[in-house]
Amino acid sequence: MSIDALKNALPGYAKDIKLNLGSVTSTSQLTEQQLWGTVLACALATRSRRVIAEVAEEAADNLSAEAFEAAKGAASIMAMNNVYYRATHLIGDEAYATLPAKLRMTIIGRPGVDKTDFELWCLAVSAINGCGRCLESHEKVLRESGLSRELIQEALRIAAVVNATAATLDAEEALAPAAV
C-alpha cells in the first residue's frame, strides 16, 4: 500500500510523523471521498514527486475518477488563489479586498463532486500554502454547510501530516549522497 510505503520510508527521527500518517488515514471520521480527496489534494500541494506518486496510487483505489479529478482541481485552483489572496491580505491595504480578482475560478462553483468535499480539500490545501484569508473563507462555508469543527480539524491534521511527510522525505533525499 502506498501510505505504508511512505511510512516505511520515513527515518527514525520522524517516528511521530510516521505514526500520525497512519492515524490520520486509518481512523478518520471523514467519508472515504473526503479523506482520500484531502490526502490527494494535500500531496499535490506539497509538490513532492514521491509523496504525490505514492498517494495518487492509493487515492485512485479509493476515489471515483470524478473525485480524483476534483481533488487535483482543488490543489490547482488553490495554488493560484492562495498566492493572490495571501498577497492582497499581506499588503495590508484593505482596498485590495474590494477589487475584483479577475481570475477564473469556475471549478469552485462546479467542482464535479459534492461542494462540501471540494471546500474541505481547498481548506486543507490553503493550510499547506499558508493563506489565512482562504482558510477563513473555506472554514466559514464548511461550517455553514453543517460540517463540524472536529471534521474540519481532521482535514487540517491531514494537511499537516502530509506536508511533514513530504518535507521529511524530500530533505532526506537532498541529504543522501549522490549515487555514483
From TrEMBL:
<dbReference type="GO" id="GO:0045454">
    <property type="term" value="P:cell redox homeostasis"/>
</dbReference>
<keyword id="KW-0676">Redox-active center</keyword>
<dbReference type="InterPro" id="IPR004674">
    <property type="entry name" value="AhpD"/>
</dbReference>
<feature type="domain" description="Carboxymuconolactone decarboxylase-like">
    <location>
        <begin position="96"/>
        <end position="175"/>
    </location>
</feature>
<feature type="active site" description="Proton donor">
    <location>
        <position position="131"/>
    </location>
</feature>
<dbReference type="GO" id="GO:0015036">
    <property type="term" value="F:disulfide oxidoreductase activity"/>
</dbReference>
<dbReference type="InterPro" id="IPR029032">
    <property type="entry name" value="AhpD-like"/>
</dbReference>
<dbReference type="GO" id="GO:0006979">
    <property type="term" value="P:response to oxidative stress"/>
</dbReference>
<dbReference type="InterPro" id="IPR003779">
    <property type="entry name" value="CMD-like"/>
</dbReference>
<feature type="active site" description="Cysteine sulfenic acid (-SOH) intermediate">
    <location>
        <position position="134"/>
    </location>
</feature>
<keyword id="KW-0560">Oxidoreductase</keyword>
<keyword id="KW-0575">Peroxidase</keyword>
<dbReference type="InterPro" id="IPR004675">
    <property type="entry name" value="AhpD_core"/>
</dbReference>
<comment type="similarity">
    <text>Belongs to the AhpD family.</text>
</comment>
<dbReference type="GO" id="GO:0032843">
    <property type="term" value="F:hydroperoxide reductase activity"/>
</dbReference>
<protein>
    <recommendedName>
        <fullName>Alkyl hydroperoxide reductase AhpD</fullName>
        <ecNumber>1.11.1.28</ecNumber>
    </recommendedName>
</protein>
<dbReference type="GO" id="GO:0051920">
    <property type="term" value="F:peroxiredoxin activity"/>
</dbReference>
<keyword id="KW-0049">Antioxidant</keyword>
<keyword id="KW-1015">Disulfide bond</keyword>
<comment type="subunit">
    <text>Homotrimer.</text>
</comment>
<dbReference type="Pfam" id="PF02627">
    <property type="entry name" value="CMD"/>
</dbReference>
<comment type="function">
    <text>Antioxidant protein with alkyl hydroperoxidase activity. Required for the reduction of the AhpC active site cysteine residues and for the regeneration of the AhpC enzyme activity.</text>
</comment>
<feature type="disulfide bond">
    <location>
        <begin position="131"/>
        <end position="134"/>
    </location>
</feature>
